[in-house]
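S.,

Sequence below, as promised.
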Amino acid sequence: MKKKLLTLALVMVLGVGLLGCSAPAANSGKEENASKTETTTQSQETVAQFSITLEGVNGKTQLTQADLAALPLVEKTIKMTKKDGSETGGVFQGYALKDVAKQLGITDFTSITMAASDGYSKAYDKATVEAEDSLLTVSLDGEELVSVVAGSLGSSAWVQNISKMSVVK
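The prediction came back faster than expected:
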């Protein structure tokens, strides 16, 4: 009698265990998708606040994150080896520089000079602005960073803490 009760209890425990384990597995895909959607939504909501002075853009003197809200937020891994052999870069999130230029109505230009708040500046020719790896970034590895990077150029062409964009026609 004890043997039958013990066997029955074991079967019930295994049955409940199997049923209990299989139900969440069916839902786990949905939970992961919801989590991915939240991450995407959060990244759209947590875009760094910035205000960049514009020169040479018709009728516009400031660029803010609100001006770029309609543009897709892209993520690119860009790494660069410095002269000393160390590596810089990481996972940048931001807006394609060519999309930013188009959004501002900048189509006919020879270069755009990007200037940092500390005075450092770099001129980007039209080909660099239109390159796939040129971004106006809002974060680096999840930390807020408003900068301009061009993966096709050396890290000396990356302008951190951008404060001004000047269009040269």
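Confidence is low (pLDDT under 50) at residues 1-45.

Coffee later?
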